[in-house]
Amino acid sequence: MPLLVVLIGWGWWQAVVAERETRRELLELRAHRQQLEEANRALARQVEALKREREARARAARETLDVAAPGEVLVIVPQATPTKGAK
Question: The domain containing residue 13 runs over which residues?
Answer without folding.
Answer: 2-65
